[in-house]
Design brief:
Blueprint (H helix, E strand, L loop, with lengths): L2 E8 L2 E10 L2 E10 L7 H9 L4 H4 L2 H13 L6 H22 L8 H25 L15
Length: about 150
């Protein structure tokens, strides 16, 4: 009994065919595995970072839009998984910090100061990181909690 294998590339699929000899007949056992072809797309990464600014337009779009972009493209775009996780971690951190600063308003107005600082951070860091990503540098979100790993 001999064994011969060959690979056929067909669109987005790789087909592995095993040709096994049994007597004088040939059996072909194809198995299909989806190929993972990642592409480099810095523009999509920049757009994902800038989409966080939708918080200032819609109120909650800065978390939803990057989450959708990350879930759809994390296997297709190089570094999208890393950038998406850091963006979601930053957005969840901003949300947690904002909720925690609300009770601090009662204590000498520290909550108002915290909300102002959080608002500036949520506006500046996505822009800075979008510029860094477009220049091929690593994005960095300081004070971001590591919720998604």
């Amino acid at each position: 009994m001999g064994l011969f294998s060959f690979i056929v590339w067909w669109g987005e699929y790789i087909i592995f065919c095993n040709k096994t000899t049994i007597g004088s007949s040939y059996l072909y056992k194809p198995s299909i595995k989806k190929s993972v072809m990642q592409r480099s797309d810095n523009q999509l990464l920049v757009f994902t970072h800038l989409s966080q600014l939708l918080d200032y337009v819609t109120g909650f779009g800065g978390l939803i839009v990057p989450l959708i972009l990350w879930l759809v493209n994390k296997e297709n775009v190089i570094d999208m998984d890393h950038h998406g996780k850091s963006i979601i971690n930053f957005q969840l951190s901003i949300l947690i910090y904002s909720v925690l600063s609300i009770p601090l308003i009662l204590f000498f107005g520290f909550g108002i100061l915290a909300l102002i600082v959080i608002g500036i951070m949520a506006f500046v860091f996505p822009i800075v990181n979008a510029i860094r990503v477009s220049n091929g540098q690593e994005a960095n979100y300081p004070l971001s909690l590591s919720i998604l790993k």
